[in-house]
Write a structure and sequence with these properties.
There is one protein chain. The strands form three sheets. Strands 6-10-9-8-11 form a five-stranded antiparallel sheet, with helices on one face. A four-stranded mixed sheet has the order 1-2-3-4. Strands 7-5-12-13 form a four-stranded antiparallel sheet. The protein contains seven helices and 13 strands. It has about 300 residues and is of the alpha+beta class. Helices cover about 30% and strands about 30% of the residues.
Amino acid sequence: MTIPIDPLPDDPAARLGAALAALGVVTPVLADGALALLRPADPRTARALAAALSDQRVRARVLEAARAAGFTHAALEIPEPGAPDLDLTAAPDDAPASPAAPDAEPRCRLFVGVMLPEPVAAAVEQRVIAPLRRAVPDADWVSADRLHLTLKFLGEQPAGLVAPLSARLADVAAGERAFQLTLSGVGAFPGMQRPRVIWLGGRDAGECTRLAHRVDDACEAFGIPRDDRAFRPHVTVARLRVQRAAPGRAAPLLAGLREAAAPLGQEWALVVREIALVQSVPTADGSRYTVLARLPLAAMAR
């Protein structure tokens, strides 16, 4: 498909790169004649961008920017052996014949967080979750591979937001240094007298709080409302089902929880080296997480 336009005389690749950045799509652009080649730095970013460009409206905005910069064709380069470029000018095989209705746009449930490193997660499961589970079996316990500290919960968002948001969050992460965070102390929301969520708290968390605020700023730029509650770093370990317990069982369950939590004084120090944009899919066995983008922080200060 060729779209006749008047080419711009001065560095169309730079023009297109700036236009895409304004749309929240940050990627190097190479001009190859009338072809604009989007060249993400790594395969993960390329795959995330390809997923976003499967949304016809996102693709249309990118192509409009390419045409305005003087190109007739555009393609996304996937930097993996044997992976073909994605021709943006041609509609994907499964694209509808007409634009989808706004309420038909694919959406995904997202959060930005810190996934616990495997050794720390295994220790938390063994030394915190296991004893609490024995005392309070009537709860939905989080498996070690899903333990994380949430920086911001985004809720249901358009799938086309993943790529530009990942790029913005990558900038945020690159502007913050890796830091140490101490996990200690078991608590509950809204409180131990009527708990719904059991958590392991974060201590000396000033750097983590600043990072959460910067993530909040980045998300607000995409129309996602800011959190109206103070940030309290914590790792959720369980959600109680006390409200569904048989009459007379709630009090013993809560007493068992408080008794089991009291002696759990262990601490775990971990170095936060990256943040993650994660998709959460609710299932009968608890939410299933897929890390869509891992975004490294700058090296820790010496």
